[in-house]
Amino acid sequence: MSGTLGDLGEFGLIGALTERVPVGPHVPLGPGDDAAVVAAPDGRVVATTDLLVEGRHFRRDWSTAYDVGRKAAAQNLADVAAMGARPTALLIGLVGPAELPVAWALELYDGLRDECAVVDAGVAGGDVVRGSAIMISITALGDLEGRPPVTRSGARPGDVVAVAGWLGWSAAGLAILSHGHRNPRAFVEAHRRPEPPYAAGPAAAKLGATAMLDVSDGLISDLGHLARASGVRVELSGELFDIPAQMRDVGRALGADPLQWVLTGGEDHALVATFPAGTPLTARWRVVGRVTEGRGVTVDGEEWSGTGGWDHFG
Amino acid sequence: MSGTLGDLGEFGLIGALTERVPVGPHVPLGPGDDAAVVAAPDGRVVATTDLLVEGRHFRRDWSTAYDVGRKAAAQNLADVAAMGARPTALLIGLVGPAELPVAWALELYDGLRDECAVVDAGVAGGDVVRGSAIMISITALGDLEGRPPVTRSGARPGDVVAVAGWLGWSAAGLAILSHGHRNPRAFVEAHRRPEPPYAAGPAAAKLGATAMLDVSDGLISDLGHLARASGVRVELSGELFDIPAQMRDVGRALGADPLQWVLTGGEDHALVATFPAGTPLTARWRVVGRVTEGRGVTVDGEEWSGTGGWDHFG
């Protein structure tokens, strides 16, 4: 479909977009009415909303519309998984200038569709309006399947801290792009299109995770939220992190510390959770530290200072 | 609280905003985690999302932040009510420039809070980011209480068409403001702050409404959606509309036809529904027409042409 949002109009575009994206198996009533109806068999629904603004959260010269769609869906679906819930549906809002090519919006929705397909979710509804800049709002819904939500506040001294998914890959990819390079592709791809370990979220809840969140701002920063909410200290061990040889190579080439990417890089949407010691964790979980009495987050015994950045580390 | 969004930062602002707005009785887990948990006792959740863009949907010189908040909440809560559901919670996204006064955002949330209070709903979560223009995304959730959703597609020949709430008040208010006036205040207030008849939505479902929607684009335009989705014709009778004397006065003063405001004005968020003939309607419902075989919407037998505007009318 050629033309711009201005040519097609908002009603025309929303029709073309919703046709493009299946509602999935959890949406008994999809777009086209005043509201959609989404299954919530648990009797509670997990809900989260995020905004993505061009220039802040993505750049059209660095990411295709398809990648922006995948990433936008991924970060919200990961938030649902981080509660221990199974994602069911997204609602999408798109603000775009009149000169935005319709093809860009269609590709964005292709990305949303394909990321939703990974977790068997669908797009239940949305809105499109014209505005001066591109902005995407995403609301994700999910089902707890009878389990309590896994919040940030349940970590207890003695728990182990474990990570599922990738850490530092998106940050390495961003560093590569920022230096004007396009390779190694694995990191650039990870920056453009994170692969959150969705299934690990409900699995962690079943394993008895005491606290969980998705790593969106950086492991240490996000664990700081968990430590604060739980009233505990999180002690990480640098040696427990597995830094791939290729990431070390990129660090050397760019004069950067790859452990910094792993500990402070956001956007990979790994899941980090705490479990009672002795929990038989599956292979997708890597133990990287433990929970103790106290406050804050340490790495190899050194405290991370918070807002001021790395005081004693890196 | 003084200062701007740039002074306070996004994290600071989201904290100040969420403190300001109660989560309400339907939100067992509110803001502060990766996602909120909202009660969905029916086992399905009604969900709808809308975007409001400054300059398109509101003007800061015509409406206070408080009024924008009330209106933004109202239009989404009305969408939930139009499905026959009871609203439970909102999720809010706010994009604003760095120079946006924090006070503006706080007042916006006061408006959201007060409109939510009308229906005993709360704000379950949200996101705040900086961007070049003010944009608000709202997702509203609701509960069907065991009833089937009332869609747009169930109207049948022989049904009556009935309206609950106000029609034409917002359009009259907009006309007054557009002419540089501020009075009569009742219409200007109705434009700034619609009062949807929320309770009439679930009540209509209980009465056996066959189809329903909220009037957001204008009665004839919205009934066009209903007629198309149901495969029927909607025949309205102009004499059945009760046009207040004060609205007639404003029409005369501005050289406008008040029936045009009533039939084509949006944003009052009245509810329009179809019921089997003989349904004992309560006083809040006013019958304004009937459903017949055919297609389209007529007023006193004349067809409304759709996009071209009034061909045979007004």
Q: Give the DSSP E fraction of chain A (strand runs of 2 or more residues).
A: 15-25%
Number of helices of chain A: 9
Main sheet: strands, sense, barrel of chain A: 7 strands, mixed
- Oligomeric state of this protein: homodimer
Low-confidence stretches of chain A: 306-314
What is the annotated CATH architecture of the largest domain in chain A?
Alpha-Beta Complex
CATH homology superfamily name of the largest domain in chain A: PurM-like C-terminal domain
Fraction of residues in H or I helices of chain A: 25-40%
User: What is the number of beta strands of chain A?
Assistant: 12
Arithmetic mean pLDDT of chain A: 92
Q: Characterize the overall form of chain A.
A: globular
Number of domains of chain A: 2
Summarize the structure.
Chain A is an alpha+beta fold and 314 residues long. Chain A has helices spanning 5-20, 65-81, 102-118, 169-178, 185-192, 200-207, 219-230, 245-254, 258-264; strands spanning 36-39, 44-53, 86-96, 122-130, 135-143, 160-164, 211-214, 233-236, 271-275, 286-292, 296-299, 302-303.
Description:
Two copies of one chain form a homodimer. The first copy, chain A, is of the alpha+beta class. Chain A folds into two domains: 5-143, PurM-like, N-terminal domain (60s Ribosomal Protein L30, Chain: A); 160-303, Phosphoribosyl-aminoimidazole Synthetase, Chain A, domain 2, CATH 3.90.650. The first copy, chain A, is 33% helix and 24% strand. Chain A contains nine helices and twelve strands. Chain A has helices at residues 5-20, 65-81, 102-118, 169-178, 185-192, 200-207, 219-230, 245-254, 258-264, and strands spanning 36-39, 44-53, 86-96, 122-130, 135-143, 160-164, 211-214, 233-236, 271-275, 286-292, 296-299, 302-303. In chain A, the strands form two sheets. In chain A, strands 7-9-6-10-8-11-12 form a seven-stranded mixed sheet. In chain A, strands 2-5-3-4 form a four-stranded mixed sheet. In chain A, helix 2 (65-81) packs parallel to helix 3 (102-118). Chain A is globular, with a radius of gyration of 20 Å. The termini of chain A are far apart. The relative contact order of chain A is 0.16. The model of chain A is unreliable at 306-314 (pLDDT under 50). At the A-B interface, strand 1, strand 2, helix 2, strand 3 and strand 4 of A face strand 1, strand 2, helix 2, strand 3 and strand 4 of B. Strand 1 of chain A pairs antiparallel with strand 2 of chain B.
